[in-house]
Amino acid sequence: MRQLNLINAFFNMTVKNTVPETPLIRPPSEWRSILIRITRGCKWNRCRFCGIYPHLGEPNFTSRSVADVKHDIDLLKQLRPNAETAFFGDADPLMVGIDAFIEITEYVRKVFALRRLTCYARVSTLWKLKKESIKVLARAGLDRVHIGLESGDAKTLRFHRKGQSPEMVRETTDWLKEAGIEISFYVLLGLGGRDHWQRHIHQTAQLINETEPDFVRLRRLWLYQNENPYSAPGSPLLKEIRIGSFTPQIPEGCVLELRMLIEELNNLSTFVTCDHKNNYVQVSGFLHENRDDMLATVDSFLALPKSMRDAHYLAVGSQI
Ligand code: SF4
What we know:
Elements: H1 2-12, E1 34-37, E2 39-40, H2 52-55, E3 62-63, H3 66-79, E4 85-89, H4 98-111, E5 116-120, H5 123-140, E6 144-150, H6 154-159, H7 166-179, E7 182-189, H8 197-211, E8 215-220, H9 237-243, H10 251-264, E9 271-273, E10 284-286, H11 287-302, H12 306-317
Parallel strand pairs: 1-4, 4-5, 5-6, 6-7, 7-8, 8-9
Antiparallel strand pairs: 2-3, 9-10
The protein binds iron/sulfur cluster.
């Protein structure tokens, strides 16, 4: 009997991390935050333009236990006792389940004196939670969600298998605003390809005008490559390009998309920023204060001689 108890004790014993697990990616604006990994990978994992988690070696989705995440929070307290902001990853940490998410949120709020707590969140996940649960998240201490809007165009979203519609975005942003949770949208220039870029940008501007998020963060579509059979998997969109169902945007087209987007946005209180170095032209500012300056920055780039613009596209093209 004693031997059996010892065996049980051995199997029940949990080997604890000595260093906290870190989300594979984080928003640039969270560079000073403590990074807390609640889930691994992306449960949806279907967006054609993406493939980031399989490419980075995390092809499957798993949830971590509340106990393990709390243990990581304790470790982070030893490493960064005065941290003021925190971020939850990976792609959609609410998939851990609302009860577990709230328990972790309340725990990190108890351990750290945070002024901001944010996470990545898919629109469809928030939409399934509905208004009341989103209010519960806010009460537990979630301040901001980083949402991959990508496009406001229904056809573009459907083609890329994003799993969300403009209607879902509208409804979800209403609930988030009502709950007092800030909204940070990510928009991908180039997502409509060369054939549908105007529709992609026009519909995106329209949806942003309707929803007035706190932030719009712009990036250029970037595809993970799989150069040979032994390299990490590439973006699913590569196959569509090969068979001709998607034609990538040209570099100057991305700059024209940026210009059209800024021009079509209203004088909102939204902060727009190109906070990723893969953008060909970087602009940042509040739409209601800095829209003309942002347009002037794009226009002065477009006024450069073609040889200079092309050299710039080549130089930026290799960065991510
Ligand atoms: S874009 Fe986001 S939701 Fe879509 S597969 Fe990539 S990580 Fe998952």
